[in-house]
């Protein structure tokens, strides 16, 4: 039996409106043993790590000086980023200011709408809690931004080296001209790596950001000409290829060895997905003008392969399949017949000025 349902998403406002209140947390002998203000710094640190950036920026940082001092440390920022589960930033390519963030919390899907209009450029990729934008209307100028703080800063049109903290071009002379064309597509980022691949690529270009070496990695034999959907889990690179209309093979890349491992397949058929999906597609608001020519394609992972997100293109319908529980949920995008960018992203407290 299908366990899915159509979600009624509640959107939250990201803007900050309250000034900081310099109230001192009361502690010592007058504090109750059950008072959170009397907790040791280490325990308070661990508790605050579980809050999403919105709650930290809008509420927690204003509670008292003690909380503010814990939150404003670089150690807390880095640990919070490491504990943040990867989600998906979803942006309409035609109406770019309509941008949302999709994630899971306690097994439930949450969609948060960005309240500001800073994202009028095309989102290109995400790395370490920061989003990279590409403005094709302004000579491909790039910007780095944090959706949690609405901060944006222009980037030079070069690669940044983490070794000596400078901007310079990386060496690609060992790659063929045909291979270098892949650099024009949107890259995928994982921990310590940047990857480029197309849907029919027989190979993947992987940049190790620490060594600044780009390697060409072949896909498994027999999959070179197949249609493949390359997706980042946030920690590793995967690709999916169709077995049937609603089932896919899954392969995961080991970044250390450059070898692919076949993972358990995704199959929605046993969950009676087809009948429920057909009912939703027959809905007039989701029906494309040319009939039932709808393609279900994987667009991203949530929480490191905990759930797979699929888009019924060209409708607004999206499906979320929980790999562990095999539960299925549905949600809708803003518009039918629109192109959408799905960028894996960790919502964070990172300030681009600290990078």
Walkthrough of the structure:
A hairpin with a 4-residue loop joins strand 6 and strand 7 (151-155). The protein starts with 40 loop residues before the first helix and ends in a 10-residue tail after the last strand. The protein has 355 residues and is mostly beta strands. The protein contains six helices and 22 strands. This is F-box domain-containing protein. Pfam families: F-box (PF00646).
Low-confidence stretches: 1-24, 27-32, 154-158
| SS-based class | mainly beta
* Quaternary organisation: single chain
The largest sheet is: 4 strands, antiparallel
Strand % is 35-45%
Question: Mean of residue pLDDT?
Answer: 77
Distance between the termini: 48 Å
> What is the count of distinct domains?
1
Pfam families: F-box
Organism: Erythranthe guttata
Domain F-box: 33-81
Protein name: F-box domain-containing protein
């Amino acid at each position: 039996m299908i366990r899915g349902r159509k979600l009624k998403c509640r959107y939250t406002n990201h803007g900050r409106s309250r000034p900081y209140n310099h109230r001192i947390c009361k502690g010592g002998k007058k504090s109750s043993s059950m008072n959170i203000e009397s907790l040791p710094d280490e325990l308070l640190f661990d508790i605050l790590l579980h809050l999403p950036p919105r709650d930290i920026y809008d509420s927690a940082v204003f509670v008292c000086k003690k909380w503010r001092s814990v939150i404003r440390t670089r150690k807390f920022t880095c640990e919070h980023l490491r504990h943040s589960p990867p989600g998906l930033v979803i942006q309409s390519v035609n109406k770019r200011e309509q941008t949302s963030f999709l994630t899971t919390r306690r097994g439930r899907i949450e969609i948060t709408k960005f309240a500001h209009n800073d994202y009028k450029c095309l989102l290109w990729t995400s790395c370490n809690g920061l989003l990279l934008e590409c403005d094709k209307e302004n000579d491909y100028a790039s910007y780095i931004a944090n959706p949690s703080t609405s901060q944006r800063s222009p980037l030079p049109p070069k690669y940044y080296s983490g070794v000596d903290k400078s901007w310079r071009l990386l060496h690609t002379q060992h790659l063929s001209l045909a291979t270098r064309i892949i650099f024009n597509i949107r890259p995928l980022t994982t921990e310590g790596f940047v990857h480029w691949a197309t849907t029919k690529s027989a190979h993947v270009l992987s940049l190790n950001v620490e060594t600044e070496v780009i390697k060409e990695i072949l896909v498994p034999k027999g999959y070179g000409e197949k249609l493949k959907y390359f997706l980042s889990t946030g920690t590793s690179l995967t690709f999916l290829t169709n077995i049937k209309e609603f089932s896919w093979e899954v392969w995961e890349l080991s970044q250390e060895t450059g070898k692919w491992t076949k993972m358990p397949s995704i199959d929605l058929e046993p969950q009676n997905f087809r009948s429920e999906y057909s009912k939703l597609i027959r809905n007039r608001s989701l029906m494309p003008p040319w009939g039932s020519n709808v393609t279900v394609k994987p667009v991203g992972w949530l929480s490191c392969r905990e759930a797979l997100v699929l888009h019924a293109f060209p409708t607004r319908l999206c499906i979320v399949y929980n790999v562990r529980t095999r539960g299925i949920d549905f949600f809708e995008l803003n518009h039918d017949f629109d192109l959408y960018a799905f960028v894996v992203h960790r919502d964070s407290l990172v300030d681009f000025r600290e990078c």
